[in-house]
Structures are given as structure tokens and as C-alpha cells.
From TrEMBL:
The entry's keywords: Cell membrane, Membrane, Transmembrane, Transmembrane helix
Domain of life: Bacteria
Keyword Lipoprotein: no
Membrane topology designation: Multi-pass membrane protein
Entry's Gene Ontology cellular component terms: plasma membrane
Residues passing through the membrane, by range: 36-62, 68-89, 110-136, 148-167, 179-201, 213-233, 254-281, 301-324, 353-374, 386-407, 414-433, 445-464
Name of this chain's protein: Amino acid ABC transporter permease
Length: 496
């Protein structure tokens, strides 16, 4: 059998048509996810309920009354990223997410740097979501009478990591359904609380403090940009479903742009109402702003629903992050860039079992360390900040790759041009204000780790280009076959 570029054989497709399933052939199944399921994965990873409950409090503590501007700026920036990724998703199908898209759009160097930065972010974001879920599970247990304990937090984190791994070993459509149900339920509960806050406001819905730009500081607004990008990120994992989605070029583009737009509007409005509701309340209560607002507005019973709902929302986000990351790891293994066992697919469920079990172990260990070594809220914030720094690099490079592809292919239009400019300018501004002045304390340590990681990646790139050229040549190769197969499927469907 003749060998093709991705190291597979032309006989693979023949075997599949002869009755051997994709899973038995070591590949993910094709065309099993409808558009709603792809959107569900994207929305579930964004986990808007968890951001409303925890991340908004972190931003308000730093940015104060003008926090809604932070979310407005972040939303515009991330929409630029999403626009570039969505534009590429309409043209290429991939199981490697932004890594695969960047490699196809702008070559192997772009694919490499997107690969390493996005993978670093995903490996940190997963445990951060595990910790977030444990925080709110523990808060719920305290409400029903269980005393606060590090042991309880540890057990919660361990249970979340194990359960997420078990579900990711099952069929991906099950995870997609869970993600949609989880987010609609939890967001609905929080929206009820926000309506109560508006109705009970002594000053009405207009809060003049939030429109007072005297002393406006771009530094204060963008100081939390790394963290807020992390809170509005993860949508791109839908791009890893290029093989499993039906009509992937339409479904994935819709999912990545639509989910960011919906969540961005929600965060701006919710932040405004939360700050309005905290008029006269101490800012220190921002560790659990929704619980505080529920008590202050006479609906403390909503706190029970919010805590368990947000815990489940974080669980859903963890579920989605692992689903997306495992498919990226699977693709890297098929490209020969990671050990071959990480590319193993479950014959029963058609899921990347080798990658899922490895990620499960990482989530378990990192999640437990995050709640034992220091305060869980601190671990969540620091891990989220590092993940945000890495995501800005991965998203920015992918959007620039999209712009480069548009120019090269003479398909540059207003939409992709605007997305590229937003991504480029936004990335530079966020990094400038994140590191100027340079953060101090624990956040300063995170910043130094970020810079050390980037230098390490540059050194690795040089090493591969100079000493491991055969390994470097494999970047993005397996996704070329994915595109050919999906295109053939869609053409056959059009004929039928």
C-alpha cells in the first residue's frame, strides 16, 4: 500500500468502506454531531454561569465601577480572535483545533507556535476549571451543614476530575447534550437573581458611578485582560470537531463566533447589574458576589441553586476543555509529535481514549495540588491568568494566520480584515498593559513563568528546525487527510 503524507496508508479508506469502523482504524468517527451539539460544546466550555459567579468578582475587585468596560473591550478582542478562527474553519476541517487551522493557513512555523501555546493554556485551564467546580461544590456543602475543610475541597476536586474523565471516554454527543442542559439551567437561575437585583435597586436601573469616566485608567481596565480573556475563551475547542461534526465548515464557524457574541453581551450586562447591586456593600465579598447579592436582596435560597449550578457549570467547562484538548493531543500523536499511544481511539465509543486518560491524570494531580498548596480561589486566579496569557498568543497567531491566508489566496474581505486588525492591535495592547507596570507578588511569578515558557518554545522551535527536520515536517500533516475525507462526505451528501 502506498504511503501518504500523514504516515497513514491509502488502504485505510478502503478498509473503512469494506466494513472496518473508523475507531477500529484508529480514527475518530465522522459526521455524528449536528450543529446544535457543536454549539453546545463551544458554549459549555465558555461556561457563562461560572464566569458570572467567580470571574466577574475577580475583575470587579481590580477594575472597580468601570468593570463593564473591561468586558466590552475583552469581548471585542475575543470576537476578533473568533472571527479569524471562524473564517479558517469555513475553509479547513481539523481535529487539531487552532493548531491544525494555523498550520494549513500559514505553514508549519505558525502551526508550531499555535500548537505549543494553545496546548500549554489547555493543560492549565482544565485543572483551573476543576478547582472552580470544587470551590462551588464545597460552598454548597457548607450551606447544607458540612464544615469547611481542605479535605472536602480535595475530595470534590478529585471527584470532578474522575467524573469528567469517565464522561469523556463515552460518546461525544452525550457530553454535548450535558453541556447545553447545564448552561441553560444555571444561566437561567442567575438571570432570575439579576432581575431581582434590578427590581430592588434604590436608584433604579441607572447607576451614574458606572458612567463616570473621571480618572479613567486604561491600565486598570486592561490589567485583568489576561484573566478576562481566559474567562471568555475555550470556544475554539469546537474546531477540534472537524471530523465528528456534520457540515463542519458551517457548524464550527457558527459555534465559535455565536458563542463568543452571546456570552460577551451577557457578561457586560451582568457586570453592570452586579456592580449596581453592590452599592453600599463591601468589595471584599466579591469572592462570591452572587451569593452575597442573593442574601442582600432577600432571596438567599437562590444561593443554594446558584452554588450547585455553578459547580455543575464549571464541571461542564472542564468536560468541554478535556474533550477539545484530547482531540488536539490525538492529532499531535497521529502527526508523530507525541507518543503514539496518545492517538489511541476507543473501539466502543469512538473517543480518543489514550489522550483522555492521560489528561484525566493531569487534571487530578493538578486539581488536588491547587486546593491543597494554597487557597483554591488563589490557585484558580493564577492558573487562569497564565492560561489567558498563553491563549492570547495562540488566538492572536491564529487570527494573523487567517489574515495571511486571506491575502495569499486573494480572498481578503472586510470581515476577515477587521478580525485580523482587532486581533493584532488587541493582543499588543493586552500584553502591554498586563506587563507595564510589571505585576508583583504571585501574579509577577506567573508573568515570569509565562516569559520563560515562551523562550523555551523558541528554543524548541530552533532545535526542531535544525536538528529534527523530519519531526518538524510532520506538523499539520494528518489534518490534510481529514479535510479530504470530510469534503468527500459533504459532496456525496450534496449529490444524494
Amino acid at each position: 500500500m502506498k504511503t501518504v503524507h500523514d504516515g497513514s496508508t491509502t488502504g485505510d479508506t478502503m478498509m473503512s468502506s469494506a466494513g472496518i469502523t473508523d475507531a477500529e482504524d484508529g480514527q475518530l468517527p465522522r459526521g455524528i454531531l449536528p450543529t446544535w451539539a457543536v454549539f453546545g460544546v463551544s458554549l459549555g466550555i465558555l461556561a457563562p454561569a461560572s464566569t458570572l459567579a467567580l470571574a466577574i468578582g475577580v475583575v470587579v475587585t481590580i477594575a472597580g465601577n468601570l468593570s463593564w468596560i473591561t468586558w466590552a473591550v475583552t469581548s471585542v478582542l475575543v470576537l476578533g480572535f473568533a472571527g479569524g478562527i471562524g473564517w479558517l474553519a469555513k475553509r479547513f476541517t481539523t481535529t487539531g483545533g487552532t493548531y491544525g487551522l494555523a498550520a494549513r493557513a500559514a505553514g508549519k512555523p505558525a502551526g508550531f507556535f499555535v500548537m505549543v501555546t494553545h496546548l500549554a493554556s489547555s493543560l492549565v485551564a482544565g485543572p483551573a476549571c476543576v478547582i472552580g467546580s470544587a470551590i462551588y461544590l464545597d460552598a454548597f456543602l457548607q450551606k447544607v451543614g458540612l464544615p469547611a475543610s481542605t479535605w472536602t475541597l480535595g475530595i470534590c476536586a478529585g471527584a470532578v476530575a474522575v467524573a469528567v474523565t469517565a464522561l469523556n471516554l463515552r460518546e461525544v454527543k452525550l457530553s454535548a447534550k450535558l453541556l447545553l442542559v447545564i448552561e441553560f439551567f444555571t444561566v437561567a437561575v442567575i438571570v432570575v437573581l439579576l432581575i431581582v437585583v434590578l427590581a430592588n435597586s434604590d436608584t433604579g436601573p441607572i447607576d451614574s458611578r458606572q458612567f463616570d469616566f473621571h480618572g479613567f485608567s486604561a491600565t486598570a481596565i486592561l490589567a485583568t485582560a489576561g484573566f478576562s480573556v481566559f474567562s471568555l475563551a475555550g470556544f475554539d475547542h469546537a474546531a477540534t470537531l472537524g471530523r465528528e461534526a456534520r457540515h463542519p465548515k458551517r457548524a464550527i464557524s457558527f459555534a465559535v463566533v455565536g458563542s463568543v457574541l452571546a456570552c460577551g453581551v451577557l457578561y457586560i450586562v451582568a457586570t453592570y447589574i452586579i456592580v449596581l447591586g453592590f452599592r453600599g456593600l463591601p468589595i471584599e465579598n466579591m469572592n462570591a458576589p452572587l451569593d452575597t447579592l442573593a442574601e442582600h436582596n432577600g432571596v438567599g435560597w437562590l444561593g443554594y441553586l446558584i452554588d450547585i449550578g455553578v459547580a455543575i457549570s464549571f464541571f461542564g467547562s472542564t468536560l468541554g476543555v478535556m474533550a477539545g484538548t484530547s482531540r488536539t493531543v490525538y492529532t499531535l500523536a497521529r502527526d508523530g509529535l507525541l507518543p503514539a499511544r496518545l492517538g489511541k481511539v476507543s473501539a466502543r465509543h469512538g473517543t480518543p481514549a489514550g489522550a483522555v486518560t492521560t489528561l484525566g491524570a493531569i487534571y487530578l494531580v493538578a486539581g488536588l495540588l491547587g486546593v491543597v498548596v494554597t487557597a483554591a480561589e488563589t490557585s484558580y486566579g493564577l492558573l487562569g491568568t497564565y492560561a489567558g496569557y498563553m491563549l492570547i498568543a495562540a488566538y492572536g497567531l491564529t487570527a494573523l494566520a487567517a489574515g495571511y491566508c486571506a491575502v495569499r489566496s486573494r480572498s481578503l474581505r472586510l470581515g476577515i480584515g477587521l478580525a485580523t486588525v482587532l486581533a493584532a492591535i488587541g493582543s499588543v495592547l493586552v500584553y502591554w498593559y498586563s506587563f507595564n507596570p510589571f505585576p508583583s507578588g504571585a501574579r509577577g511569578v506567573v508573568a515570569w513563568i509565562f516569559f520563560a515558557t515562551v523562550l523555551g518554545y523558541i528554543a524548541l522551535y530552533c532545535y526542531l528546525r535544525l536538528r529534527k527536520q523530519l519531526v518538524f515536517a510532520r506538523i499539520g500533516e494528518s489534518d490534510r487527510r481529514t479535510t479530504l475525507e470530510v469534503d468527500a462526505d459533504e459532496q456525496a451528501g450534496a449529490v444524494r
